[in-house]
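# nightly structure sweep
# worker-07 picked up a monomer target from the shared queue
# config: single-sequence mode, recycle default, output format = structure tokens
# input follows
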Amino acid sequence: MKHLIFKTLLVSGLAGVMATGAFAQQDSTVKDTVIKKKSKYMVRIGGGNLISKMDSTKNAKKGRFVGGITFTRVDLGFSRLIDNGDFNLSPNNEFLDYKGGKTSTFSFDVLQFGYRVNSNFKVYVAGGFDWTLIRLRDNVTIQKNQPTLVALPENIAFSKNRFSSSYVHIPLNFEFRTNESKKGKRFYFVVGPEISFLLNGKVKQISDERGKEKQYDSYHFQSVRYGGTVRFGYGGMGLFTKYYFNDMFTTPAQAGLKNMSFGVSFGLN
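# output follows
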């Protein structure tokens, strides 16, 4: 009796598998069909249910979580030091006198996680890296491992004398965008706060006498920096500006010295 039941179940199972394969083969031969009905299109996918173009557009407007690894919001521009509200440096900071055309900023994001409310608005937290590169005008060397920020004059004509900082930044962005144009592009407006954590400070010098030299230290840069960013663009390209609310350095002599940056932003999405 047991053998009979087992054989019955085995035959039934094989028959079910064969039937499933037959139906699958039959379904695979059904072609997608587009049916025009009045003002909207009905699309038949693989012989299944009808899905309207209107319904698919409606689903695209629903909120959803977004995020992952990325490479976007690449900012390239200029940096400026603001000394207690003035672009001119005070006597305490004259050793930081810089070449404006060669004092720059560079940053990009590699992670983002957020929520797209609809096709016109999303909010997200991102993560990336940020560099501020100050091209010093004078032939001085900023000293490492000192209790204050000190620069010693040098009897050397440096072809490059760069004082820089690098940070990990975490912006919280609120992104507003228009509907797509006929070319599939949008206008973007992105605004939000940002917090950054110091990786290191660096002095890089090039001269005929010493060749290329690099020194690393914190150089009293703020270990935690906070500010805000505004971006405006069209398609994948736009303009940005950043302003940092706390001082650049932790030393009392540099109190009130802040920095800002502005330039071109690539990879808006």
